[in-house]
């Protein structure tokens, strides 16, 4: 009987994990099923570009995983029973229950309104493709001189504000940040951000808390009103709520607590990768929600699963940071080099070269997801436990 591996979510981490498992394990011994609600891969790190009116290359999963041995199931996950090892899903034909022997949980995260009054009702989000397309339609209908206000001074907010300002110079663009502009990068990086923001004419409201979002304005904690014909909320992410509803050990934010192999500390047959997993990096600090964390987590999980099933020794990818790549429109960028625990170093790359550097990073991440079994070995590993019609239990290298 085949060992059933179920991968939930086909973002960067889920797609990467499924592809790596498929190229490392023998299809006679293992069945890898990838469950996702949408039929196409979403380049989440580019959703601000989609909102600004740019079109991305289509990446259908049917093409991505053709011939890989990965079975794609289009379905929405509604519940996980980690004790019974089942997953409830909804498909176009109704509800189903899927069973697994090993689960890779990669459902990721969505936007988080942080409980701010009016944010859920009146703000736009760009953490998903539907959200980005909805904002794209709104921007297309905005008149010259109107203001689009981005709430959130992190990487997503900075990228969104500069993208909108460059794409729509006829609009006024404002950024509301709880801290200082780019206070998470080096002094040189901060100066570059201010230079680019000034060049693009972006108004920055630093050290400002948002108390309310209205249809036509953002209200600060101090009572000031910032006019806003469209408000974009980028102030944090919330993980998918399904994990918190299970018996698995999770954090207050709903992330699954995992060990160094990305296995759940309470249910070792469940591996959590990407934003869904609470993992400690090599520097001893929790990994932040990001693609930079998710891909190494997926590699560690896939290799640990392979080792567990085949008896081979698992290599461990490093869980440490090296850089933060920030696009500032299509012509400017910032590459901030960081320590292993994600603190800014003095070194950075700025300007047009940095923009090209960031573009290569984005293309590489998308290419890796779209070519999940590139470099597949000619002989995949056999499981250590005999399968039907097998005459050997030896694990092949």
UniProtKB/TrEMBL annotation:
Top-level taxon of origin: Bacteria
An annotated Gene Ontology molecular function: NAD(P)H dehydrogenase (quinone) activity
Keywords: FAD, Flavoprotein, Oxidoreductase
Pfam families: Pyr_redox_2
Signal peptide: none
Low complexity bias spans: 384-397
Cofactor: FAD
Cited SUPFAM superfamilies: FAD/NAD(P)-binding domain
Any single biological process term in GO: aerobic electron transport chain
Stretch list, region Disordered: 373-397
InterPro entries: FAD/NAD-bd_sf, FAD/NAD-binding_dom, NADH-Q_oxidoreductase
Annotated ranges, domain FAD/NAD(P)-binding: 4-292
Family per record: Belongs to the NADH dehydrogenase family.
Protein name: Oxidoreductase
Organism the protein comes from: Glycomyces terrestris
């Amino acid at each position: 009987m085949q060992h059933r591996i179920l991968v939930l979510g086909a973002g960067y981490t889920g797609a990467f994990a499924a592809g790596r498992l498929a190229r490392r394990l023998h299809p006679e011994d293992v069945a890898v099923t990838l469950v996702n609600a949408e039929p196409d891969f979403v380049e989440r790190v580019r959703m601000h570009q989609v909102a600004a009116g740019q079109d991305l290359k289509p990446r259908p999963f049917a093409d991505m995983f053709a011939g890989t041995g990965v079975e794609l199931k289009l379905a929405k996950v509604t519940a996980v029973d980690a004790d019974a090892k089942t997953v409830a899903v909804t498909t176009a034909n109704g509800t189903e229950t899927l069973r697994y022997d090993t689960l890779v949980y990669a459902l990721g995260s969505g936007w988080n309104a942080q409980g701010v009054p009016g944010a859920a009702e009146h703000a736009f989000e760009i953490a998903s493709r539907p959200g980005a397309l909805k904002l794209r339609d709104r921007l297309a209908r905005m008149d010259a001189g109107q203001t689009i206000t981005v709430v959130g001074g992190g990487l997503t907010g900075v990228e969104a504000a500069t993208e909108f300002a460059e794409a729509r110079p006829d609009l006024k663009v404002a950024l509301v940040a709880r801290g200082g502009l780019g206070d998470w990068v080096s002094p040189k990086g901060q100066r570059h951000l201010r230079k680019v923001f000034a060049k693009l004419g972006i108004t920055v409201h630093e050290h400002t808390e948002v108390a309310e979002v209205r249809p036509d304005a953002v209200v600060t904690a101090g009572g000031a009103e910032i006019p806003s014909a469209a408000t974009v909320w980028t102030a944090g992410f919330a993980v998918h709520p399904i994990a918190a509803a299970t018996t698995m050990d999770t954090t207050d934010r709903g992330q699954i607590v995992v060990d160094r192999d990305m296995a759940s500390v309470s249910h070792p047959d469940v591996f959590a990768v990407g934003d869904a997993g609470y993992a400690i990096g090599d520097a001893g600090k929790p990994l932040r929600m990001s693609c930079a964390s998710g891909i190494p987590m997926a590699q560690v999980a896939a290799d640990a699963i392979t080792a567990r099933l085949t008896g081979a020794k698992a290599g461990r990818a490093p869980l440490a940071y090296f850089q933060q790549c920030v696009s500032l429109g299509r012509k400017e960028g910032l590459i901030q080099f960081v320590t292993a625990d994600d603190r800014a170093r003095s070194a950075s790359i700025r300007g047009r070269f940095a923009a090209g550097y960031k573009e290569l990073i984005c293309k590489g991440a998308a290419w890796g997801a779209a070519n999940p079994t590139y470099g597949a070995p000619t002989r995949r590993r056999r499981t250590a436990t005999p399968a039907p019609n097998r005459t050997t239990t030896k694990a092949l290298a």
